[in-house]
Amino acid sequence: MKDIIRVKSLISADVETLLNQQIKKEAQSSSAYLSMASWCDRNGFDNSAEYFFKQAEEERQHQLKFYRYVLDMGGTALSPEVTNVKIEYNSFREIFEEALDQEISVTQSIKNIAARCHKEQDYVTVEFLNWFFKEQREEEYKARRALELFDLIGEEGTGRWEIDKHVGKIHYGNEAGE
Amino acid sequence: MQNTTLEVSTHLAEVYSTVKGAVYQSDSEKCWYVDFAGKMAKFDYRNILKLKKAIYAIDIEEILLNSSKTADVEIVFICACEHCYVLTLLEIISFKELLEGTFVMLSLNQILHDRLYRIAA
Ligand SMILES: [Fe+2]
Ligand SMILES: [Fe+2]
Fold first, then answer.
1. Structural domain of A21
2. What residues are paired with B31 via a beta bridge?
3. What pLDDT, on a 0 to 100 scale, did the predictor assign at position A109?
4. Is residue A7 in a domain?
5. Around Cβ A132, how many Cβ atoms within 10 Å?
6. What mean pLDDT value characterizes chain A?
7. CB distance A5–B27 less than 8 Å?
8. Chain B interface residues (partner A, CB cutoff 8 A)
């Protein structure tokens, strides 16, 4: 009996499901960042708004990267529905806290996919995921640095204005320690 | 009904069967024949996955607990596929059992292919 399933698709049904969940997660991240950009813009934090617009765009690219991979491997990529997007935030700081939480949750979720891939020896997908691990290193670093500005500069007086000014300058070198 | 199955089974390999039905694979047509609920239906790769998804998605517990007077019948449509099933609760349970067994056998088949032909001894 031929192995039709393997002939049609490189990835297993379980990995495909996990990748589709990740597609949704990236879409949600993109929408959340867009919402953060909107809040920052409305409240006069122009640099932060710009920073989040960029992040939203990046998440969209991540979503498409997963999406194309699923299709390329013979799977069915599902265009996700994104609901319950937050509009209001309690404070400037809360936005950056949520941004970091979101990145941590994305890292954990991709680790979970990799764990599953290792279990079924799907090293092809593991190799694909490696790009994202490198990306998450940068994403978490930037989100953490942004949040640290609140402690370094302080929010009093022109503090928030100062923080906003520095958010645009956060940069991660290609190698750790740079 | 059993006899009609035998007729087409010359080029078919049985993947899995229960007392209620059976699934056969045709290597030449690269598809599966599902013998269930009084009919033999042909499914290609995409459609059998859709069938699996549709059947697995039915919340059996919810139907059992549902006390409303509506009939315990579920209609299973598969998008872009000519087949449709109208199933009672008991049929849903046995259909799910049949499909679960089928997919276990198909993964076993994949392991066999890996071991016998794909991975150097
Ligand atoms: Fe991302
Ligand atoms: Fe991100």
1. 13-78+90-172
2. B26
3. 97
4. no
5. 22
6. 95
7. no
8. 13, 15, 25, 27, 30-31, 45-46, 49, 106-107, 109-110, 113
Hey, CA dihedral for A50, A53, A57, A63, is it positive or negative? positive
CATH number at residue A117: 1.20.1260.10
* Contact criterion met (CB below 8 Å) for A8 and A74: yes
Distance from Cα A171 to the centre of ligand 1, integer Å: 17
- Tell me, yes or no, whether A4 lies in a domain: no
- What amino acid is encoded at A8 in this protein? K
Quick one: average pLDDT of B101-112? 96
Q: Which ligand is nearest to the CA of A62?
A: 1
Q: Are strands B22-26 and B31-36 parallel, antiparallel or unpaired?
A: antiparallel
For the cut 50, the answer to whether the pLDDT of residue B91 exceeds it is yes
Q: Is residue A20 part of a domain?
A: yes
Closest residue by Cα to residue B114 from A5, A90, A3:
A3
Q: Are the C-beta atoms of residues A49 and A37 closer than 8 Å to each other?
A: yes
Q: How many domains does chain A have?
A: 1
Nearest Cα of chain A lies from the Cα of B36 at a distance, in angstroms, of: 21
Asked, for residue A2, whether it belongs to a domain, the answer is no
Q: Which of B25, B27, B110 sits opposite A6 (nearest CB)?
A: B110
Give the model confidence (pLDDT) of A112-168 as tens digits.
999 999 999 999 999 999 999 999 999 999 999 999 999 999 999 999 999 999 999
Chain A, window 75-94: residues with a beta carbon less than 8 angstroms from a chain B beta carbon: 76
Residue in chain B nearest A4 by alpha carbon: B30
